[in-house]
Specification:
The protein is mainly beta and 250 residues long. The chain is 8% helix and 69% strand. It has 1 helix and 11 strands.
Length: 250
């Protein structure tokens, strides 16, 4: 009962904030290639390549490369990882006249826990990122030397993967739904402690045992430093490729 009351209060508060602030609606497409290298029974490496652009007008928004190494913690369902991301950020306004690309470095540490309820796999991911932004001049028209620390960001994602139809051995149609919240922390954060929320639903198909394709819709609701908001409708198209580099021959 207490949890239900808390959820209702949060929804009312969020709707109140949404109604009082300026909301900018944007449409985007995100393309992703996720490559996983299985190194052993306990270790794997993953690399992400993502391209993100606006629709109508078409304009570059973000390009990122994220690499992380994972350690599976026995049979507990838990794993941990360390990673680094190079993030190339273009203006949040696709009509901006100055289109400076600002690099950002994001080291992160992560803990994740997976468990099954019947046929549904639940995935809890806890990630902490440190964000280092490339220096620019005050008007953000020219890059200057070096990087400076910006903020910490805390992320929690709850995801459920549901098998829909078995195509062949280890090949399925799957439904994936998730919700992820991002919280900011740091001396420069005053108004946007709540940074964003991402709600996602997508359908995946195992093309091969080690290659799958996923298409889905994400609603990204983000608070800006001035307390206004972005409401982004995103089409996500992602390819997942897994390679077992520890496979014994013969």
């Amino acid at each position: 009962m207490k949890k239900a009351i808390t959820v209702v209060l949060l929804m009312v508060t969020t709707n109140g904030i949404y109604g009082q602030r300026n909301v900018v609606n944007q449409d985007l497409v995100w393309y992703g290639l996720f490559t996983t290298l299985d190194l052993s029974k306990k270790w794997y490496f993953q690399n992400e390549l993502q391209e993100r652009h606006f629709v109508n007008p078409a304009a570059q928004h973000q390009l990122l490369i994220r690499s992380h190494i994972h350690r599976i913690l026995g049979k507990s369902g838990w794993e941990t990882s360390l990673g680094m991301c190079l993030f190339l950020q273009n203006p949040n306004d696709p009509d901006a006249t100055v289109k400076l690309t600002v690099p950002e470095l994001r080291p992160h540490i992560e803990f994740a826990y997976k468990h099954k309820v019947a046929k549904v796999t639940f995935d809890h991911r806890y990630r902490v990122e440190a964000r280092f932004f490339h220096h620019t001049n005050p008007t953000r028209t020219v890059l200057e030397d070096g990087f400076g620390f910006g903020t910490f960001r805390f992320r929690y994602r709850l995801q459920a993967t549901i098998p829909l139809y078995k195509v062949a051995e280890k090949r399925y149609w799957k439904l994936k739904v998730s919700d992820e919240i991002h919280l900011n922390a740091g001396n420069t954060i005053s108004k946007n402690v709540f940074e964003q929320n991402r709600v996602y639903a997508g359908v995946g198909y195992d093309i091969l045992q080690n290659v799958s394709f996923e298409a889905g819709y994400m609603n990204l609701f983000q608070q800006r430093p001035n307390s206004d908001f972005y409401n982004r409708n995103i089409l996500r198209l992602t390819v997942f490729h897994k390679i077992n580099v520890n496979k014994k021959k013969g």
